[in-house]
């Protein structure tokens, strides 16, 4: 059964999905696959540049690469992969517009469990996209037909383009029979450091890396966005969701309560609700309180991405509210 994708900023990112400080040893099954691949190159797995096998060791790098090229993850298990060929054929057809990463749930049980828990899935296969480090659940339980998958992938690519993710998998030009596009630039070291820190849940280290990147280049939009996202994650860490929402409902004019509720709205995927909550506060407040709300709302614009149509609409509403 397919479900329509939600915008990549709509959910918590996959921080903590893999313990970057304690990567597990290869499982017996993975070693057996490698042994058979060495004996018979025909069993070596995906030969396409657009399809890769994902392990705990490579997962973090692939997620970081989603800031340049959309990543589609296919979590599969032997006996439950009937129909996966359609997804791989589409990866070939799209010729590098996205990277398909296949995760063998039996060879990578820790990674599989973390992914299932992060996306609150109940069945395998599980297919999800990742854009700028943000997960987009696509479908679970069975593989739809190619014609059913195609519009879902189109929506993923539309969301990716709206968020500035327009790179292609290296080698796409030759596979498609056309002249290749310029290779996407590598992730800057400080960006990679910050993203890895977020994945590990070390928000202090992530903040330090993004801050250093901005000190080197104040025009670094990616660092500005990253710093804003880490700020949201830090503010909501350890917050009791029910208590925070109850406090906001009981005190609709309490600026700090509404700001925290807006952060929770955003992290929970309710982007428009977060913006509407703060826009209402802008209209009801004045002076320093209004400035605090306006500043926070602008910070959330950076979190979602300035090119996102919801940000464009909310920014126009903010201008009307202020003037």
UniProtKB/TrEMBL annotation:
Pfam families: TPR_20. It comes from Kineococcus halophytocola. Coiled coil: none annotated. This is Co-chaperone YbbN.
């Amino acid at each position: 059964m397919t479900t329509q994708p939600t915008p990549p900023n709509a959910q918590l990112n996959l921080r903590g999905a893999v313990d970057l400080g304690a990567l597990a040893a290869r499982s017996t099954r993975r070693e057996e696959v490698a042994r058979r691949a060495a004996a018979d190159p025909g069993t070596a797995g995906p030969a396409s540049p657009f399809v890769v096998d994902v392990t705990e060791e490579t997962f973090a790098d692939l997620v970081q690469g989603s800031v340049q090229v959309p990543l589609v993850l296919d979590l599969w298990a032997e006996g439950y992969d009937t129909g996966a060929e359609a997804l791989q054929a589409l990866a070939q057809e799209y010729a590098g517009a996205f990277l398909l990463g296949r995760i063998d749930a039996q060879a990578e049980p820790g990674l599989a469990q973390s992914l299932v828990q992060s996306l609150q899935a109940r069945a395998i296969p599980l297919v999800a996209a990742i854009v700028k480090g943000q997960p987009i659940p696509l479908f679970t339980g069975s593989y739809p037909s190619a014609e059913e998958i195609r519009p879902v992938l189109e929506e993923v690519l539309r969301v990716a383009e709206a968020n500035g993710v327009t790179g292609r998998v290296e080698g796409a030009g030759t596979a498609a029979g056309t002249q290749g596009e310029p290779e996407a630039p590598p992730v800057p070291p400080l960006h990679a450091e910050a993203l890895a820190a977020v994945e590990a849940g070390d928000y202090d280290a992530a903040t330090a890396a993004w801050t250093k990147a901005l000190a080197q280049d104040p025009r670094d939009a990616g660092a500005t966005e990253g710093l804003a996202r880490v700020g949201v994650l830090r503010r909501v860490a350890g917050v009791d969701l029910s208590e925070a929402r109850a406090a906001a409902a009981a005190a609709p004019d309490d600026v700090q309560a509404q700001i925290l509720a807006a952060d929770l709205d955003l992290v929970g995927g309710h982007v428009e609700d977060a913006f509407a909550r703060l826009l209402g506060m802008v209209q009801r407040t004045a002076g320093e309180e209004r400035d605090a709300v306006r500043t926070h709302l602008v910070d959330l614009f950076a979190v979602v991405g300035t090119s996102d149509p919801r940000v464009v609409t909310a920014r126009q509403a903010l201008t009307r509210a202020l003037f």
